[in-house]
Structures are given as structure tokens and as C-alpha cells.
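Figure-free illustration: sequence to structure, shown twice.
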Amino acid sequence: MRIRLAAPAELPLLQDIERAAGEPFRALDMAAVADDEPPAVEMLERFRRAGRAWVAVDGEGDGDPVAYLLSATVDGAEYIEQVSVHPRAARRGIGRLLIEHTAERARTEGLPALTLSTFADVPWNAPYYARLGFRILEEAELTPGLRKIRAAEAEYGLDRWPRVCMRRPV
């Protein structure tokens, strides 16, 4: 498996990965999450141009992406905006590889931690991240940027299911 920056022509493939990765939410009575449209190509392009849209590809990197990760800097930490793995590539450690790649990049940029916001009770969300060393942040620990992200998620309707912010040192 190889991690590299996404290419412009691959951005529609990232949308396909996102749609496919959303399907398992149906089994948890979270059809609204499964039906949610992936980020627009224009938004994906902004992450790509900023050097923060990473893909995982089989072999030497000549194949199509099977997973991707988007990140940004929020309040002095690397915030994982999205990590999605196509179900046909699931359970192979690809999400972990993308997260470790992001942690290494954050370390080289002098950032102290990775942060994210996720569903608390979805097995491949908060419990998965906890196994990777993330811890749930208490309300008082949320930075202004994380509070803003949580408010936007609530406005979007994601608070129908419990959500948490998490942090892991790099």
C-alpha cells in the first residue's frame, strides 16, 4: 500500500469512495449519513492544493485510490476532516496507515497532536480511534476551532447521534 497526494483526476473517485464507505451506516439505522453527498470536487480540490488530500493506493501507486484522508490545521493541531476507506479494502489497516502518515506530517510541521470529531457509538468511529491512541476530549478541553466544528455539525443535523471530539499526541 502506498500513500500519496491525490491527483486532480482522482477527486471524483474520492467521492465514490465516500459513497461506498457510507453504506455500512444503514445497518446502524443511520441512513441519513449513508445518503449524505460527499464533499464537492471543488472542496476536495482545495484540500488537494493545500497538500492535505492523501490517498492510499495498492502497489507502487499506479492504481486507483481505495481510501483517502483530508486534513487541516485547527487551533495548532492537525484536524482529520475525513478518512474514508472503500468497503472492498476495509479491515486491512489502510485507515490506520493514512492516520499514521498524517501524524508523521504533523510531527514534521511541529504540530503536537491530531484531532477529529466523530460518532461516539459507531464501531469504526470513536472506538476505532481509541484503539489508535485517541482519547475523547471533555467539553472544557475543546478549543475554539473544535467548538466551531461541533456547532457546524449540529447545525447540519449530525447531533441526532452522539458525537465526540478526540485528540492524540503525535
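We now fold a second protein in the same way, so the two outputs can be compared directly.
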Amino acid sequence: MTLMILSHPNFEQSIANKTIVTELTKQRHDLEVRHIYDLYPDYKIDVTAEQTALLKHDLVILQYPMYWFNMPAILKIWFDQVFTYQFAYGSQGDKLKHKKLLASLTVGQPEHNFIVEQNFHLMESFLKAVKASAQYAQMDYIDPIFLYDIATVTGHSKIQIQTKAKAHSQYLNTLINTLIDPK
């Protein structure tokens, strides 16, 4: 089964993330979505509930919009509080070992804004902490996927963004199938 940790502070106003989650839940009845902003508007994470959810799933998807070249604040708090000693790391902290972690981000700007000289992609730098955290917890880090250029301020219509988000959702569903049933 697959767990999605959804971290969007304005989900009801979202176009891309809302479309991705809506479409993916239509395709996958085995998907558990935990919208941590809805669950913890006071930022007081129920660590036991989150760890229990992690234990039930083999694949964990982090779905969020990139905020100031990073994850939304509540997702960082979620990591800090849920990935605890003797759960995610430590001499007996192997509870997440071999679970897969996949980041799925939406980014308002076009992809070319994140490529610098010699095709170095800045997103690799922005996600180093996520990758290191997954590896420290003995998880299998899956290369992240991105949905770029989805801001309405750049002139994209709601329908254009939804179309791109539906394609992202389809790709994500295909990737999930590959990851949880690699035949």
C-alpha cells in the first residue's frame, strides 16, 4: 500500500496539488492520504498516529508545493517529530528500513530556471536533506518527480494547470505500480 503525506497550507485554493491528489485517489483505492495541515492546524503532530501510518505502507509519497526553495514548514516539523530515535534511526531504529520514499513536488516556475551551468539541476541541492533523511532512516530514496510551470501568475489558465496536473498524476500512478509491484 501507498501512503501520501500531503503538505499544502492552502490546499482548497490549490489547482495543481488538488488535481494530483483527486486524480490519484480515483486511480488508487489503496492510497492513504494524510493531509497534515488539516490534521494538525496547530502544528502539534500526533507522532504515534503518523508512525503507525508509516508502518502500514511500503511506499511513502511526499506531495507538496515548493515553498521558498524548500518544503512547507509543517513537513519539516513532521520529519523532526516523526522520524524519532529508535524508530527511524538508532540501534533499534529500523522501522522504516527498505520502505520507499518518493517526493512529488509542484513548482510554479519553469524547469529551465533551475538548471545552471553544465546541466546541474538546482532541485538536487534543494532535496539533499530529504534524501539524506531517507537514507539515514534506511529507506530507499526514489528520484523525485516535479511538475513545473504551474503558476497562474505566469499566465497559465486553471484548465492548463489541471491538464498538466492530471498528466503528472498519471505518471505518478504508473511509477507507483512500478515501485510496489516491480514485475
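Summary for the second example: The chain has a mean pLDDT of 92.
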